[in-house]
Structure formats: C-alpha cells, structure tokens
C-alpha cells in the first residue's frame, strides 16, 4: 500500500466532511450522485404516472398514444430550445453536444396524422427553466433528458412487441432515443466529478427538478375515455 497516497486521501475526506458539517447540508461526492439522490422522489413520481405506464400495456389505444406523443412534443419543444440555446454560450469540454429529439417527434406526429402544435402551455411559459444560464444549469436540464433515454429502451421494446405496425410507421422518436441512449455512459463520466461550489450544485439540482416538474405537468392529462378503441 502507498501510505503517502492513503494519507492524502484521508486528509481530503476529513476536509470534505468538515466543509459539509460547516455547511449543514448533505455533501455528495459527484454531480451525478447529487442529481440522482436529490431528484429521486420526482423521478419516482414521473415513472408512476398512468399516462407513461400505459405505454407498456397491450391495452394502449391510438387516442392515448397520440396524447402521449403530443405531451412528449410539449416537453421537448420547451426544454430542448433552452438547452440548445445555452450551448452557444458555454464550454462543454469533452462532452459532445446535445442531439435534438424534437424533429423525430414531429415526424411521428405527422405520421399519426396529428397537427404539429407546439404552442406552450401557461405552465411551461411560466416555468423557472429559462431564468438561469451557465454550465451547471445546463447539466441539470440535460441530466433529465439523457436519463430519459434509458427508460425509453424498455418502452420501445414493449411497443415493438405489442404493436409491430406502429414500429414500421411512426417510430422515429423511439429509434432516436435508442440511438442516443448509447451516449449515457459518456454523459455519466462527465458528471461523475465533484462540484466544489455549493451554489453551483444547488443551481444544477434546481434545473433538474424544474425539468422533472415539466415532464410531470405535461403527462398529467386526463386518462382513458371509455369509448376509446384499442390501438390497431
């Protein structure tokens, strides 16, 4: 064992714990752990929404699927616009730029014979998402969108199994999600570093929380109507 290295690590841990004790808040070893644990309840709340869980069910109807895709378009039209705009003013270092999902969503809406209406609701227009700038705000937003690709892998497989005709007609968004899901490990590597500025950490977490809230707001629409027919 290299005792000099071991001793230095111990010193760093002691300094870290003293700083946390003085701050009287939880200290996280990395941006990733801070985002994961601080948004855990919102993540669970989003995953439990009936309008998302129905995507995994064979009883999904065409009307439901259209409303769900319209909700996705509402979310991404708002968040992506801000995210891409911020990339013009920040430095991402080794992190590749964000890959937009909205064009694929709009293609699917057209394939489903739906109007591409991206008019933002009052909840989106008054959200706190656009009130901040900077790399930490950017990371908080992107954490939620990149993380969404991981759940999309399961949704896409289930949709392909239950509705093969859908996969051949209007599947651009899910194919895009599968493609960009491969970038998740690289994004995790980028955020797997500590944040020494507590205010920056708080800004990053707040941005992620606001993004989760937008997802929850857009997917909290009335559920199935009894007269709706099944998918195909």
CATH topology title of the domain at 46-91 and 100-115 and 130-223: Heme Oxygenase, Chain A
CATH superfamily of the domain at 46-91 and 100-115 and 130-223: Heme oxygenase-like
Assigned CATH class of the domain at 46-91 and 100-115 and 130-223 = Mainly Alpha
Approximately how much beta-strand content do the residues carry?
A: under 5%
Q: How far apart, in Å, are the first and last alpha carbons? A: 65 Å
Strand count, sense and closure of the main sheet?
A: none
**Helix content class:** 55-70%
- What is the structural class? mainly alpha
Mean pLDDT: 83
Q: How many strand units?
A: 0
Please tell me what the overall shape is.
Answer: globular
CATH architecture of the domain at 46-91 and 100-115 and 130-223: Up-down Bundle
Return Rg in Å.
Answer: 20 Å
| Contiguous runs where pLDDT drops below 50 for at least 5 residues | 1-24, 226-230
Q: What is the H-and-E element order? A: HHHHHHHHHHHH
Distinct helical segment count: 12
Summarize the SSE layout with pairings:
Blueprint: H1 3-23, H2 31-38, H3 40-47, H4 50-53, H5 62-86, H6 102-111, H7 122-125, H8 135-162, H9 164-169, H10 172-180, H11 184-191, H12 198-218
Helix pairs in contact: 2-12, 3-12, 5-6, 5-12, 6-10, 8-10, 8-12
């Amino acid at each position: 064992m290299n005792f000099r290295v071991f001793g230095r690590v111990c010193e760093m841990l002691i300094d870290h714990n003293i700083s946390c004790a003085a701050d009287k808040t939880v200290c996280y070893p990395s941006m990733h752990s801070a985002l994961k644990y601080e948004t855990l309840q919102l993540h669970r709340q989003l995953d439990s929404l009936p309008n998302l869980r129905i995507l995994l069910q064979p009883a999904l109807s065409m009307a439901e699927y259209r409303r769900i895709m319209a909700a996705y378009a509402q979310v991404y039209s708002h968040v992506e616009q801000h995210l891409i705009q911020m990339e013009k003013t920040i430095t991402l270092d080794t992190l590749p730029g964000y890959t937009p999902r909205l064009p694929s969503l709009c293609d699917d809406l057209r394939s489903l014979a739906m109007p591409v209406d991206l008019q933002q609701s009052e909840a989106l227009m008054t959200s706190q998402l656009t009130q901040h700038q900077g790399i930490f705000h950017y990371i908080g937003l992107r954490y939620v969108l990149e993380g969404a690709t991981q759940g999309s892998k399961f949704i896409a497989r289930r949709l392909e199994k239950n509705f093969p005709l859908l996969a051949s007609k209007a599947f651009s968004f899910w194919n895009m999600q599968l493609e960009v899901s491969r970038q998740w490990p690289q994004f995790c590597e980028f955020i797997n570093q500590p944040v020494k500025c507590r205010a920056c950490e708080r800004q990053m977490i707040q941005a992620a929380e606001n993004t989760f809230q937008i997802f929850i707001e857009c997917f909290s629409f009335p559920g199935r109507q009894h007269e709706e027919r099944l998918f195909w």
